[in-house]
Amino acid sequence: MPLGNEIAYVVYQVNDLDLMESFMQDFGLLTAHKDDKSLFMRGAGTSPFLHVTLLGDENKFIGAAIRMESMEDLHELAKLPGSSPVTKVEDYPGGGWRVRMMTPDNVQIDAVWGQEPAKEVTHRPPNPFNAGHVKARYNASLRPKREPGLALRIGHFVLRVSNHPESVKWFNERFGLLASDYMCVPGDKSQVIGTFLRMDKGEEFVDHHSMLIVQAEVTGVHHCSFEFQDIDSVMGSHDYLVGKGHRLDCGVGRHLIGSQIFDYWRDPFGFRVEHYTDGDVVNEDYEPLYYDVFADDTTQWGMDPTRDFFE
């Protein structure tokens, strides 16, 4: 079975590239490439880009990409019904090869391999934290600033789907994704309506989830999420975005499922984007849990989402 390695990027279409670029720079991404038809934003890591915006009349989510382990994985995927042939990438920075597929809800998913890595952007290490019983900072003070943070990488994205079991099966068969935890109808653990999916790397620890698939009346993207270095980076960026007049969606808080410290914002076109830090990492020994709670019960501290947050 082909195995996904990590989320590579997400793709949107909007009618104003300049407006998206300005927001994303405030949000914590850097411009990797821009022309009159497309915008590519990157983070601090070696991925050539993380967020793609194509110019078009309709503002919409197009899809995402998953980076694969090998060229052989691409050839295996190309054999599946509905897959494109293995194609050399010539329209996106970094090149490489891809296979293009469509989910049951017609979301474009690219499997990619062989991108030329970008040079890592210099960024600060995590700030040492003096916990109650464990001190890591001596004879030194912290001076975090209210400024745009710097996204390290894209961590995950969330899809609202019309048929939850069908979509989970689709991603499992193509990318070997494993269930970490389940969201259920509140009060009824027998009715699963959401599955947190992670990459399968056996005993190696990976992010608790790279995707969430959730049953919903309206299909499409719920949000995409970018990892920040630490809570100082999240909070400094939060205050900066408030000062710039951007639209806060929900945050700051700590999730129940996955434990991340989160901060959700809306871009100028209404799409939800998230900063996060301090998320769980799990491996093959992790046992999935079933959470039968409302959306506003999924925050342990901080700002609660509305009950219709995942709808």
TrEMBL record:
PROSITE patterns: VOC (PS51819). It comes from the Bacteria. Pfam families: Glyoxalase. Residues 153-278 form the VOC domain. This is 2,3-dihydroxybiphenyl 1,2-dioxygenase. The lineage of its organism: Bacteria, Pseudomonadati, Pseudomonadota, Betaproteobacteria, Burkholderiales.
